Amino acid sequence: MGALFGGFAGQGIAADPPGGESPILYQMKQFKELGSILMVAAHPDDENTQLITYAARGPGYRMAYLSLTRGDGGQNLLGPEFGPELGLIRTEELLAARRLDGGQQFFTRAIDFGYSKTPEETLKIWDRKEVLGDVVRVIRTFRPDVMVTVFSPTAGNTHGHHTASAILAVEAFKLAGDAKAYPEQLAGPGALNVWQPKRVVMNSRGGPAAAGAMRMDIGGTDPVSGVAFGDIATQSRAMHKTQGFGQTPAGGARGGGGGGPNVQSFTLLDGAPAGANGIFDGVDTTWARVEGGAEIGKLADDVIAKFDAKDPAANVPGILEMRKKLAALPHDRMLDEKRRQLDGILQACLGLVVETTVANAQVVPGEQIKMKHTVTMSAAIPARWSVTYPNEPADRDPMWHDLKPGERSALDTSATLSPTTKVSQPYWLREEPGAGIFKVADPSLIGRPENPPPFPVDFSIEIAGQTLHVMDEPVQVITAAGKPDIRRRLDVIAAVSMAFKNEVRVFAPGSERAVEVELTGYRANAAGTLQLDVPAGWKTSAAQPFKLSAVGDHAKFTFNVTAPAKSATGDIVAHARIGDQDFTTARKEIDYPHIPPLLMQPPAVCKAVSLDLAIAGKKVAYLPGAGDSVAPCLEQMGYEVTQIAGADLTPEKLKGFDAVVVGIRAMNTRTDLAANEQGLFDYAAAGGTVVVQYNQPGGLKAKLAPYNLTLSGDLPRNRVDEEDAKVTLLVPDHPAFNTPNKIGAADWEGWVQERGLNFPSDWDAAHFTALLACSDTGEAPLKGGLLVADIGKGHFVYTGLAFFRQLPAGVPGAYRLFANLVSLGK
């Protein structure tokens, strides 16, 4: 819907007060306020939602949160999505939070690569210069008066990403106003201007304040809804559901709670010292700061003083006068934002609602989009409207339609989507990323939370000699009985999608294996050819023709792929050609109730791994935990894998399995283990092999092992984040390193993100043997990453090594070592 857009990050402005002050009147007061704050931290959930809520909904400052990452390296407590998929979900969680607390949202291209113990490691992996440039870009775009860091730029006992975010904020504060810094941002289309904030401060969030720190009470109540800022902040923070928020009251300094006083302190990091007026000391937050803006400020005062909440249309003449004066000022990003805000206020006073709907929110490049445009306006003011499409050539004159008060004006139109339009995919995921930073071809997109609409719609409303432009996009309205309508944004899709049966395919060097691809049609009579693009040195069979008659039809194809004669890894890409169009994408739909439906169309890729791999045994039982892809990787090794549940942990049901593998965080997430896990221990004692992957110390619902084994709450000290950290074999003759695969130095190469996490801090040394030691640079070796205990006739393994990341990534050494663990005793 072409929203009645206001300052609350996409929320509409209601024409009638819901109980407190008129929302339109409050928006006028916010329009008059030019003070602005940019908060900077590292991840989704780092933000102080109480401060955002207070600033945006109290004095009405322009308030934004810059999260350097999208949280793609974290864990997911809702479902199986990790990596880029999790980053997209957390992006939408932040946007859902901002819709509640009133802030704006920005990002850099930095990748959340997991926990980092030092800012030095973080800045090395992120590409310090590039991410710093992104922070400078956001400052020059948003133009804040004050910057607020959530963390200290001085290293301490916290995530390296946290400290790095503050370091970069302070550096960017100094550079944003320097024309010699990142000059490419200041030239060409979409050029920015330099901008120097007044000061950058650190928010202690209610903790002990440094000497001379500024203090500010951010408690209070939203003047429109009457809801306490703390309660709004708690609701906002509850949107981070993939991180477990929203299940229980969030509370705390970052989450708010209640409407009482909430005094927080702010320590100056750089810039002008502040006096009695706190963080905005010395900052003119009125329209007098803008050349030619003093008159607009006076006009705003006049509209506010005479505001008629019962008859919003009576306020239109004053707003139109302000709009005319504002249009005469030069273009400036902050002023353009204020122009959009004033247009939203004008919309609300007119009771103007526009909407563009389509029957299907998914369109293929080159197809026709059939749209219904509707406009209603309650104000009894002469007006007319037309609609144009900015992405289309301006080769036709707009058709104008009169508006009558309270009547719905509708227009059915169609337009053709350019055949060269790219299929929808988050802009930061379109290109192969670097080690710690996403690659983005179009610099103008950097900083944005999500893609711009693929087919924007411009409603032009002529009223009293002025033209109001209301930007919109086509949506599909999905209705269901007893549920709110869902408005699904337009997605550009491939005519077919491809999915490999296996995300990873393991080959013996020089061997030939079948690779299966399933093709799904999203348009009737999709016909063409399907082929596999293989890495250099690999071979595959010829392209195959296909025809899918109806939408939703599936077809499976098998290609013979031959691996090179030596160990190698690479990507096999599925490639469909229909006419003169090429499609190489898979399809992933994500649907959680707290965020909009999401569609991802990443490359259809299978990781091909050629390696010398031997296994012992044939049948493995897999007890899933919080969600991982280890089970299919075991199948790729050559095992027959059976999924089991807690009730299956009996001698009778486990009989015949060569090993039982327990998924990540199973003891944290499964409620069926405590009553049944003795059967797991008995299975091992009878001669079986059990491999338990990492768990978290908090919220354990079952024992970790048959013998004492402790996970420390000090997680940063019990993990190894450097994926290339040196590994020392403490018991080199142990079967885990020798049977059936001889583990050597090469097997520790090419690991991704980390060696491991949540290593046990204490264990029963009389039963468990620590097999290896490793550590991050400058730290004492950790010996808890791989523990093996002999129990009766069998073996019990507990490992914090990150096999759940390495196996789906096709790391050869991880396959060989994991095969040895599963093969113990065989």
Key attributes of the depicted protein:
826 residues; alpha/beta; seven-stranded mixed β-sheet; 17 helices; 21% helix; disordered N terminus
Short description, anyone?
This protein is α/β, with parallel strands linked by helices and 826 residues long.
Describe this structure in words.
With 826 residues, this protein is an alpha/beta fold. It has four domains: 1-17 and 287-350, no CATH class; 35-285, 3-Layer(aba) Sandwich (Rossmann fold); 496-610, Sandwich (Immunoglobulin-like); 619-822, Class I glutamine amidotransferase (GATase) domain (Rossmann fold, 3-Layer(aba) Sandwich), CATH 3.40.50.880. The chain has 17 helices and 41 strands. The strands form eleven sheets. A seven-stranded mixed beta sheet has the order 3-2-1-4-5-7-6, with helices on both faces. Strands 32-31-33-34-41-40-38 form a seven-stranded mixed beta sheet, sandwiched between helices. Helix 12 (630-637) links the parallel strand 31 (619-623) and strand 32 (640-643). Helix 1 (23-32) runs antiparallel to helix 9 (294-305) and helix 4 (119-126) crosses helix 6 (160-175). The longest helix is centred in the first third of the chain and has 19 residues, at 83-101. The protein is globular and about 90 Å long. The N and C termini lie far apart (63 Å). Residues 1-17 and 248-253 have low confidence and may be disordered.
